[in-house]
Amino acid sequence: MSFKFPDSFLWGGATAANQIEGSHLRDGKGLSTSDVCPYGAFGEIVPRQAGDFNIKDLAIDFYHRYPEDIALFAEMGFTCLRLSIAWSRIFPNGDDAEPNEAGLTYYDKIFAELDKHGIQPLVTLSHYEMPLNLAEKYHGWASRDVIGFFEKYARVVFERYGHAVKLWLTFNEINVTLHEPFTGSGLPRDCDEQTRYQAIHHQLVASAKAVKACHEMIPDAKIGNMILGAIQYPFTCNPDDVMHTLTQNREWLMFGDVQARGYYPSYMTRKFKELGVEINITEDDREALKETIDFVSFSYYMSGCASADPNEQAKTEGNMLNMVANPYLKASEWGWQIDPVGLRYLLNFLYDRYQLPLFVVENGFGAKDVVNESGEIVDDYRIDYLNDHLFQLGEAIQDGVEVMGYTSWGPIDLVSASTAQLAKRYGYIYVDRNDDNQGTLDRIRKKSFYWYQSIIESQGEKLTPPKA
User: What is the mean pLDDT of residues 285-303?
Assistant: First the structure.
């Protein structure tokens, strides 16, 4: 590839506190919604009992091993690390009068370590978790009270870390409440559409209030949204399929439309009417929503198809989605269809729509890695996946799309959000821990570690055209 990525392009990886940190109750941390989902986002919600244990309670012990892990990221050449702050480390119950100083101090150390290695943090305020007390006492984001609790939390961390963090995101994959209401909003999984969309509205208002606070408190920072990039193609050129696809894509585009434009799109008027939903939107809400994001960030793992035919049986699932399978694409061993060109398409699609800078903050390949007799992990399948996606990202930049950076998902093996497995590995760095909680937690560089190192060092020039 003769093309070099822009000098300002940020290279790195993406993580989430509840999937790497462990120490789920250490130093005053409260329980989060993630802590009661020991089997993953779709698994059973299990109240905590004294002495019980689940895989996320230790995760990969980043809480204690962060200096070693950040040094490995620096060795690869990272200029950016996406990470999240665990809201329940700062406000253990969510509605506490004062923040937890031990939690604030922990992230002071994280940001100092990143600064030491010249790595810029990209911080998500809420990544698939919220204080459990807010879900139990206030019915999660269904309560308007939670807007105030979130804004208070945001202002505390902006005040504390504004000198160190200049890139922020509000909610991870904010559209996930459509698919997993407890993980997304702390709602019961059987909640009705009225409750679901009112909670989503409260989140959108809270996000806008955090954006305003960031603009006021850290004027040299940028703050964006984060959506699950669930792009769908028409299964056929039948106009019914094309129209159905437009409707399906609008389900997740609505979130970006509100956050980037500052108001609800007109197509949602019909959507709410058909659902029998009446959102309580105050004049203060409308005013708050006018504070718009600086950039659009998104995850991209796979595309899918949409069909107006309800009898279309060939389904594919991945990242909490259920779509019609694309017969032209291969899939991972977890059934996630692989579509590098879809990333270029999505980048162009979103840039045409919003004319805002874009940031690919999640993209990666989950697989069952094997340590060979020589102690090595030869993950050529991951290299192929990432190479082909980054190649298409480069094509999008040449198309004229403004892309701020790329943080691949799980630069170090971590606990899967959807299944709470360690066997589903994404990292350039292998962690010796298994689903049975056995292992030394030792870190091992995979073949992809050195590959990504070379890609960053060459500013993308060593990417190769996809194989035929």
Answer: 97
Over residues 15-27, the mean pLDDT reads: 97
Rounded-to-integer distance, Cα 419 and Cα 56, Å: 11
CB-based contact 407:398 (threshold 8 Å)? no
- Cα gap 407→364, rounded to integer Å: 9
Q: Give the span between the Cα atoms of 41 and 181, in whole angstroms.
A: 10
Say if 3 falls within a structural domain: no
Number of structural domains found in the chain: 1
- Given 21, 362, 376, 457, the catalytic residue: 362
Crossing angle for the helix pair 145-161 and 101-116, to the nearest 10 degrees: 50
**Enclosing domain of residue 166:** 10-457
Reported as a single tens digit per residue, the pLDDT across 155-199 is 999 999 999 999 999 999 999 999 999 999 999 999 999 999 999
**Is residue 68 among the annotated active site residues?**
no
Predicted TM-score (pTM) of the model is 0.97
Q: Which DSSP string do the residues of 143-211 spell out, in sequence order?
A: STHHHHHHHHHHHHHHHHHTTT--EEEEETTGGGGGT-HHHHHS--TT--HHHHHHHHHHHHHHHHHHH
**Higher pLDDT residue, 9 or 332?**
9
CATH number, domain of 228, equals 3.20.20.80
- Taking the C-alpha atoms of residue 186 and residue 196, their distance in angstroms, rounded to an integer, is 10
Whole-number Å distance between alpha carbons of 308 and 245: 8
Q: Are 196 and 187 in contact (CB under 8 A)?
A: yes
Residue-wise pLDDT for 46-97, tens only, equals: 999 988 999 999 999 999 999 999 999 999 999 999 999 999 999 999 999 9
DSSP state of 83: E
